Amino acid sequence: MPTTSDMPDMPATATTPYQDAQRVGQSAVRTAILDHAIDLLVSEGPAALTMRRIATGIGASTKVLYTMFGGKEGLADALYREGFARLRRAQQQVPQAADPLTALNDLGAAYRAHALAEPAYYRVMFEQAVPGYRPGPEALAAADHAFDASVAAVRACIDAGVFAPGDAHEISKLLWAAAHGAVSLELAGHFPAESAAGRFDALMTAVGQAFLADAAHATAPASPANSTDRQGDRA
What we know:
Helices cover 70% and strands 0% of the residues. The N terminus and C terminus are likely disordered. The protein is an all-alpha fold. It is elongated. The longest helix has 21 residues.
């Protein structure tokens, strides 16, 4: 008869990701579901993104997912919104620099850092990683709010006289377009790690210069009076 010391060690009772999240709260459950869905999307492709596969992976019933998201379309919408919610939090956590232009540049750097840290969510946000999903007006509006900090930083540059007067929201959109292009090329492997940061900074500096107050003065068209004077000189 074996002694107690001969008996194999019994493993501790294992818990599922769903059970662990339940102990924290509903928000943690939602995050656990979305993070597992993202993992499946990256590792196996969109065909693996089924309610049953996700539920099995975290140890929950499909009823939990259907109750929370309504179906696959609702899940895709939640993934899209979650990506922008995380981006917004990342932007809000950037320390506020005293110099407005430095503050704006810091937000640009944070955008790149977040995209590199969350490439799977970046794909859902910008690359239509879930076939058939198109964000509706409410989702697009939520996405737009992810850049509130950027709009405020641009407005601060205008108010401080660093940027020429203009539409802060539109300028923020143009800066976003530039940042997105550089980051997308980096994530796709076209910008190697050793040069990606330098290229990103160079691009953002070049685009930003178009809005500087000094640049506006340098490229301002001649006034009608000056044009008349020159026409008189030529006559």
